[in-house]
Structure formats: structure tokens, C-alpha cells
From TrEMBL:
<feature type="transmembrane region" description="Helical">
    <location>
        <begin position="41"/>
        <end position="62"/>
    </location>
</feature>
<keyword id="KW-0812">Transmembrane</keyword>
<protein>
    <recommendedName>
        <fullName>DUF3105 domain-containing protein</fullName>
    </recommendedName>
</protein>
<keyword id="KW-0472">Membrane</keyword>
<keyword id="KW-1133">Transmembrane helix</keyword>
<dbReference type="GO" id="GO:0005737">
    <property type="term" value="C:cytoplasm"/>
</dbReference>
<dbReference type="InterPro" id="IPR021454">
    <property type="entry name" value="DUF3105"/>
</dbReference>
<dbReference type="Pfam" id="PF11303">
    <property type="entry name" value="DUF3105"/>
</dbReference>
Length: 204
């Protein structure tokens, strides 16, 4: 083989290697381009998903029905002040949850004796919770109710009430819940949900 043929094969080999490197470089660029495009697509897919999820969440929160407050709602009978001992229209619940009442509210706290309904309605108007119970309840239940009342020293009144038609009654402004068993969780729920839902939210 002469030198010209050897030199020609060497040149051809260089061209083939150069062409091969060129093809590999093009493939690498194509792969990088595809990866770049895939990243862009993934970014926008994730972004659209997040925006859509947030939008759905906002719409859901704005349109979902509000959880009803515990207890039964009673029509508000007004909030007129009346002198002690004055006649007034009959209340629409037992115990009452609104209506004509005395001008002076009771001090918050636990009582061993009954207080007038007309006085405690004023406390409800101020956003408080009135926990009443039949006088013949067990000492253990009475102690538990008083313990709950002492947790809310400026928002709750606990007192016996002979006219109750349930063992325990929970009253707030315009709402009433009756219990025939001691349910501490339900009592706490009623207090937290209904406290200060009143014309004069002054309870603390």
C-alpha cells in the first residue's frame, strides 16, 4: 500500500470521527432540548394544578354551608328593660333566651340559689352563657357544672332552676340546648360557639 492510500484512509477516518462527534453532539442537544421542554411543561402543569386547587379551595370555603351553632334557635322577643316585678309577656322557651328583662344584670359566677329569669336574660344580652340545672341533680354533676362555670369567670353563670324541664339547660342569646345527661364536651362546645353572639357582646 502506497503512502497516498494510507494518507487517504487516515483523512477519511478523521472525517468519520468528526461526523460521529457531530452526530453525538446533535443528539445531546436534542436530548437537552427535550428535557428543557419537559421541564417547562411540568412547571406549567404543576402551576396550573396549584392555581386550580387554590381556586377550588377558595370557592369551597366561600360557598360551603356554615356549620350551625349548637342548640335550638328561638325567635328574639326583644330586649326591653323593665322594673323589678313588672308584668311582661310570656317567654317562648324554658328557660328563656331573650325578651324583657331587668336593667341590672347578675355578677358572673356560680350560685347556690336561684336567680330571677328576668335578671339572667340581661346576662345573655351581654353575650354570656347561662347554665341552669334542676335542684335535685347529683352532687357530682353539680360539682362538674360549677367547675365548667369557673373556667369562664366573666362569661358564664351556673345556678339551680326549679322550672327547668330538663336536667341541664344551656342558654345564650336566642339559643337553648337541653341535656338529660352530663355531656361536658357539648357544654364546652355550646359556650365557645355561642358566647358573645348577642346585641351587646361584653362577656370575656
Amino acid at each position: 500500500m502506497n503512502n497516498d492510500q494510507s494518507s487517504q484512509r487516515e483523512v477519511l477516518g478523521k472525517k468519520e470521527r468528526w461526523e460521529l462527534r457531530k452526530q453525538e453532539k446533535q443528539k445531546l442537544q436534542e436530548i437537552q432540548q427535550r428535557n428543557k421542554w419537559a421541564k417547562k411543561v411540568s412547571f406549567w402543569v404543576i402551576t396550573i394544578f396549584i392555581i386550580g386547587s387554590l381556586g377550588y379551595g377558595v370557592v369551597y370555603l366561600a360557598t360551603r354551608p356554615e356549620k350551625p351553632a349548637p342548640g335550638t334557635a328561638f325567635p328574639i322577643l326583644g330586649r326591653d328593660h323593665i322594673p323589678v316585678g313588672t308584668f311582661h309577656p310570656e317567654y317562648n322557651s324554658n328557660p328563656p333566651a331573650s325578651g324583657s328583662h331587668y336593667a341590672k344584670e347578675a355578677e358572673w359566677g356560680v350560685y347556690q340559689n336561684e336567680l330571677p329569669d328576668e335578671q339572667l336574660i340581661h346576662n345573655l344580652e351581654h353575650g354570656g352563657i347561662w347554665i341552669s340545672y334542676k335542684p335535685n341533680i347529683s352532687p357530682a354533676i353539680k360539682i362538674k357544672l360549677e367547675s365548667i362555670g369557673n373556667r369562664y369567670k366573666k362569661a358564664v353563670i351556673v345556678a339551680p332552676r326549679a322550672k327547668n324541664d330538663s336536667m341541664i339547660a344551656l342558654a345564650s342569646w336566642g339559643r337553648l340546648e337541653k341535656l338529660d345527661i352530663l355531656d361536658e364536651a357539648e357544654i364546652i362546645n355550646f359556650i365557645d360557639a355561642n358566647k358573645n353572639k348577642s346585641p351587646e357582646p361584653l362577656a370575656k
